[in-house]
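Board work, copied verbatim: Transporter
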Amino acid sequence: MLKKSKTTFLPGIVIPSLIFIFGVTILSVFFPNRTEYYLSIVKNLLFVNLNWLYVMVVTLFVFFLLFLFFSKYGGIKLGTNDSKPEFSFFSWISMLFAAGMGIGLMYFGVAEPMSHYTDPAFGQASSIQRAKNAELYTFFHWGIHAWSIYGIVGLSLAYFTYRYRLPLSLRSCFYPILKEKIDGKGGDIIDMFALCSTFFGITTSLGFGVSQLSAGLVYLGVMDEVTFRSQIILVIIVMTIAVLSATTGVAKGVKFLSQINIVAVIALMTFVLIFGPTVYLLGSYSENLGYYINEFFNLTFATHTYEPEHKEWFFNWTILYWAWWISWSPYVGLFIAKISKGRTIREFIGAVLVIPTLFNFAWMTFFGNSATWLDQHTAQGALTKVANNADVLLFEFFKYLPLTPVISLFAIIILVIFFITSADSGIFVMNNISTKNAMKSPRWQLVFWGSMLALVALVLLNAGGLQSLQTMTLITALPFAIIMLLFCYSLVKGLFIDNEYYTRPLSHSTSSWSGTYWRERLDRIISYHGKSDINQFLSKTVKVAFEQLAEAFKGNGIIATVESSLTESPHHVEIKIQHENMADFMYGVENVETAVSDYFRNEDNAPDIEHQRTYIPRTYFGDSRKGYDIQYFTKDEIISDVLKQYERFLSLSSDQKNEIFLGQNIREED
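↓ predict structure ↓
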């Protein structure tokens, strides 16, 4: 027999995505300047007029995750309650770190602090204050705010995938809102957006990264000059290894390379610490961290409205970073969700927000503060002169440390591994999106995505269209930020239902059950009632019980009245004992409509129910407490339950500290 399908690609996702990718690529290749011009206009309009929206959205992400961390929902697992993590803690941290920001640290570890240090916007400050501010803003851009963006997407995906058993796909994050509609066209559009965003993000990073790698090889004398031919060779090498890594799976190739990476960057950072101004760096790390914590709220909400001289810097750095992290979040979020099964929400948030942030802070301090210190004391301003040339700045920095050729080569090796880990995890994620998390895909699909990344990156490098692609990616960040807000809403809704499901106690009506009437109980449990059934229960059982109880109260000198409405909505019966000087006692039962899950109605091996709506008799009280279902009560059990509530009422009323509630009737009359 012939196989029905030789691919797991979903045409509704892949074909429109490829059309859009090729369309944007063609515009960027044949009309790079004009495309960049118009895209830049749109980007600037967004950054200038809606920068406050970027600030507020990212701020909300930070505090939303902190709320979940400290809330009762933090103990919920990303999976079944007995699920275990798939990867060790070290492997998990290594992979999420490598996929999230690894390559950026190599590029910006020296470049960003030096750029802030030399920026004219801060030129009036002293050199010491400029050095402190350089680290402060670098911490801000690479810290909790950045990782909270990744955390929102990653947590939403992991929760709905492993807790709700939905596909590892962005569409799954809308399940509480759209239900089964996520499998339709709306879900395809969401996944198309994620696929294109991931493709463009990795392509631009690959293109710019190859430019830095080429410049470093020329700087070290390995190559005479940067040529397109040399860039082709570099891209082919990187992507070949990346494809081989991706085809071995996350648990093998991606995990292995990520672990190598984290060990290598720790070794490089330790080298800079030992052979740089060690005491100064350790002291500055503590001071930088304290300065960041002290300025956290000012940084978080700042839009520089009162500082027009800082506006351009703000748009070109902070807002651009927020847009860039948001545009990368589908890719990084999908990947860290993939590797986070079995973690609790609190563990996930704590690890994603804190551990990479502290490492980034250490990296930026050791590299950035070393660079500013060397520039002032050893290089005599030489690093300042090349501060705008990020491609060679890292290697220029290494000139002022021992073993320059060795450490520069080691940095290039790390850079290559970072390229590979970013690319292989990206290939894996893109195949995941395009197949809606198919259990197993043919290897040629991974080769296809790797080849596409390499081809588009090289074409754009040759034509000078990478900037256009990057600008378009930044523009898409704002609409995706709105989608992320909906993720937050869906997550809250899902967590609320989750918590209620696992913490809901037994029905109040079961507290007095014994095995005496178990057959009658079973008949009632598996029966679902219409409005007329419950009205009949109110009339023949509840009302009769209340009337007998009222007679008994009267025999003890207490006047109780029974009121009912069984012909006009709302249908109810209640017994009331009125008081002059304190609150009234009331116990009522009303006919309440409830919804029945479609899953339950369509299940063959469950009680039969034809309609989506059913009705229950639910209690209510004079003090507005939450009522409960009493449909299983007999007449005597209803009388018993009313007496339990009346005994509670008398106990509370006799307690002097409850006088604030007892005077309710008097205050209302006044």
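Residues 518-669 form one domain.
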